[in-house]
Amino acid sequence: MLFQVVVVIILIFLIARYAMRPMLNVMKERQDHIDQQITTAEENRAEAEKRAAEQREALTEARREAKQIIERAKAQKEREAEEIISKAQEQADRMIQDATSEIETEKEKALSELRDEVGRLTVMLASKVMEKELDSKEQSRLVDSYLKQVGELQ
């Protein structure tokens, strides 16, 4: 029995020395490897969160810039529309002024022609009156005739 106890103690000593130590070293290495993977995963997660925050910030900035671009485009559109309307109004005013001027010129021309005709008819009437001495009936008829001729000219 003593022999068995000594053999068991020697066996335990040999197992502890040659089997347990390598097995404990493998388990320690495995634990270190798992700890390293957990640390790497945490670092990767932190980096991913950082990049996601950067992307959200970049997206917010892009939206803000797009909004500014749209606002500038709207303002430019309004300025251009006002400019086009202003130019059109100026052109319409100029056309009205030109037409008014042309109408006034034509009116003056017609009045001038009418004055010339009235003068000519007056001279003609005066020469007829001079040619003969008129009584009141003849004078009335001559004035009516003269007025009729002036009316036809207008």
TrEMBL record:
This is ATP synthase subunit b. The keyword Coiled coil applies. The keyword Transport applies. It is a single-pass membrane protein. It comes from the Bacteria. Component of the F(0) channel, it forms part of the peripheral stalk, linking F(1) to F(0). Keywords: ATP synthesis, Cell membrane, CF(0), Coiled coil, Hydrogen ion transport, Ion transport, Membrane, Transmembrane, Transmembrane helix, Transport. F-type ATPases have 2 components, F(1) - the catalytic core - and F(0) - the membrane proton channel. F(1) has five subunits: alpha(3), beta(3), gamma(1), delta(1), epsilon(1). F(0) has three main subunits: a(1), b(2) and c(10-14). The alpha and beta chains form an alternating ring which encloses part of the gamma chain. F(1) is attached to F(0) by a central stalk formed by the gamma and epsilon chains, while a peripheral stalk is formed by the delta and b chains. Belongs to the ATPase B chain family. Residues 31-109 form a coiled coil. It is found in: Cell membrane; Endomembrane system. InterPro entries: ATP_synth_B-like_membr_sf, ATP_synth_b/b'su_bac/chlpt, ATP_synth_F0_bsu_bac, ATP_synthase_B_chain. GO terms for molecular function: proton-transporting ATP synthase activity, rotational mechanism; proton-transporting ATPase activity, rotational mechanism. Pfam families: ATP-synt_B. Gene3D superfamilies: F1F0 ATP synthase subunit B, membrane domain. GO terms for cellular component: endomembrane system; plasma membrane; proton-transporting ATP synthase complex.
